[in-house]
Amino acid sequence: MIRVRRIGVTVVAALAALAGTPGLALARQPSETRSPTASADRELPPGWRIGGKGAARELLWRSPRPVPIGDARVEFHAGDRLLGVPKQAEDGRTFRLALDEAGDAPLKDLRALASGRRLDAPAAGSPARRHSSSGTRQPTPVAPLPANSVDPGRPGSYRTVTGEYRLDPVKFPGYAQPVEMRAVVVAPAGAAGKRPLALFLHGRHGTCYTPGVEDDVSGEWPCPAGTEEVPSYRGYLKDQQLLASQGYVTVSVSANGVNGQDWQAEDGGAQARSSLVRQHLARWADWAAHPGDAPAGVPGAAKADLSKVLLVGHSRGGEGVNRAAMDSLYPPPAAQEGYRGKVRWKIRGTVLIGPTIFGQNPVADVPSATILPGCDGDVADLEGETYLDGTRGISTGAALHSAVYVVGANHNFFNSEWTPGTSAAPSSDDFADDPEEERRDPVCSTAAPTRLTADQQHRAGASYIAAAARLFVAGDDRVRPLLDGSGRRAPSADPARVLTHAVGARRTGGFVPDGGVAVTGGRVCRADPDPAQACLGEDAVGMSPHFGWWDLPKDSGKSAVALNWSAPGSPTKITSTAPVSLSGARSLALRVFVPPNTTGSELDVSVTDSAGRRAKLGRVRVDGLPGSDRTSSYWARELRLPLTAATRARLDLRHVTSLELTPRSGAGAAWFMDAWGWAPGTPAVRAAALPRVDIGRLTVEEGDSGTRTYHVPVQVSGHGAGTARFYVVDTKSGEATEKVLAVRPGADPVDLSVEVKGDTLFGTDEGQDLLVKAVRGAVVGSYRGGVTAHNDDPAPRVTLAPVVRATEGETLTWQVSLSRAAEVPLGYLLRLTPVTDGAELSTKDVDPQWLSDVSGQQPDPELPLSRLDLYAGPEFPAGATSAEFGIPTVKDQLAEPEESVRVTLSDDWSGPMPDAPHSTGTVVDAP
Description:
By secondary structure, the chain is mainly β. The chain has 10 helices and 53 strands. Strands 11-12-17-13-18-19-20-21-22 form a 9-stranded mixed sheet, sandwiched between helices. Strands 23, 25, 26, 28, 31 and 33 form a 6-stranded antiparallel sheet that branches. A 5-stranded antiparallel sheet has the order 24-27-32-29-30. Helix 3 (237-245) packs across helix 8 (454-473). The radius of gyration is 30 Å and the shape is globular. It starts with a strand and ends with a strand.
């Protein structure tokens, strides 16, 4: 047994093959750390505070300006450790995280992040300050790619007709309020026969607004009286009209009811959005079978062909439609399910626009095209790249997964209802320059030559959505070169510069760093905060989509081979642990990236077979993308070399053992993602029967006595057998121990038990988390769960001595008492209020060093103490019931009347706390 103690919770890990493994200890004994208390506020960065009392203690961060409701999840970090996901207050600026969610982590190097983008001001000298856009190279203009033979962005021959429907709302597990069933439909007029269906789902945006009031947008649900719903679902009308003109029935659904409540969902709302999509698909299946039941004014209801469905999701909507595709093939547990009916549709593909992927769980056997906006100011790390990278090795690899990088596109302008000038509700450019800074981003400022206008961006998005529809649904292979890294462009998307790479389809074999390779002349790197293991060093300008943020700082499943050279000629050799078959391939397709804004990196590429025969395939040139410190431009380019040289050298392409990359340009750096045998064509895709893994969350009461044992709920459903990587999170350090284990229905891959000891002492909630990612032959639904023990004991009452007195030059000292001891340290902020009688102590009457420490103020100008925001108060160690708090005074030579100060307890922002005790401290002249 492997045990970890965290106050009243004991975790017993019996992870099948892991029990007793020395290298997989569940936790290490943490160093002694002081629990954060009120007096620690002065040690926190600007804008950060500890607030509340007792069970309501919170870590708070207040932004200097409102943070728009967006799709990226705002997270609090202490260094590389994720503390938790705070709740955004109605003012749009204040974010609150319960301290019991932060665990015992020291509150050092605090950061507010969203998709790796820092929201709070970094300290001077930090990496975020050192690497500014002013030091990056200007992007070099490039010639446009050759035009593709077919342009799917051109309108079709059909006229279009538009209608809307609004049905009874639906209830989802874990959501207090019903979610709306509302949509806008655009369909072809006069089209014969059954027509394919394209369903759009918007992302997380404001839910309600007050017409005529600037910037009055909220995330409430349902919308209060006097406000209107933000019509995000109407933001894809241009895309719908293009597809409808080409013969598709299109429907765009509203998800405000999910957006207004998903802050409390552990998966960020993915399961609820999936349920919403499938609820709409079920209605369309009903109407196709019984046309008379369709609401009046819904065009195309009778003609929708539910065997040919394309799902299009923007941001969190992208993660939602990915989950809908998964749930349609591999049903979720009943407790999570918001749709209980039969699956009467077939999803042929998905288009994901600037998507989130909190669950890191792409669906390998459903083709996808992920649009990555190069100037995304919301989901800034472009984590949607995982919808491609994360499918490698999961299933048969027949499904094409494409990444479509749009240089100069932001997050919002793919939706016209999120775009200033076209939206009904207030909206903004998510990549706007900071008005308080003089510098302008060289790539993404509105005046930058690489930045797209809203119309240009939306037109490009529509063209590539149509390309995916034509390839995945209509099966027209002529548009494949627009999506699979073949280096062709759609003229209808001009002047946008659009680059693509892909995995799957007719790619074979594969050199993949996390799939088992040995490297000489380079190193395998991964997503890791350790500079010795990380792919990008501290000198990197910007981020890489290939190593995006997740719940854990380390991810051994996200890796690359790093090459660094100071002169040409030193090869990097990548040897597979098992021979790779390139049989039947026409070319070798590599994905390689170099630093942004660099040009002319050249690499010779050679392969060797198991008999030692070696062939040089040719030379590739790699240029960096336009990038700055605010972009994710370390993104791989697809490079292809024909295999004719290997054939001439009589290599056995069924048994290729190694790949060599030899730099032929001056000093430089490059990162190798993978290499595959490539051939043209798009094979038919059949979803494999795979096991599905879901982790649940069990919340239990602590109780007053005894010990109870609970198990983290882990469910494996479906068919077949596969492997998954499980992560057990240390409750003290936040670090995770990981192991790849077999998963199959009917067997428990992990038995993680938690012993909860009851007591009558007040404390914080405690718990144990478990995370999972698919590795091979499996899918993951709910990726995170655990056991949480709710502390059910009331917080102690606080009392103050009602009156204290001191002589000038002494310290006014209050005895503060708790009605009962607590099992955790407690701290309280005090608030000074105006005295009701006589003179009040001022800033000149107290010790100047103490004054500076607790308020940041100086004695001059002289102010009454009640005018100060005081960051100080009594601290109670665990088990203590009494503490002291003092205000040191200074002695002067003036004859003065008695002076007083009135003290009470404060709320989070120095306001009065209801029912808090009051006390008066009085200072008299020295004799």
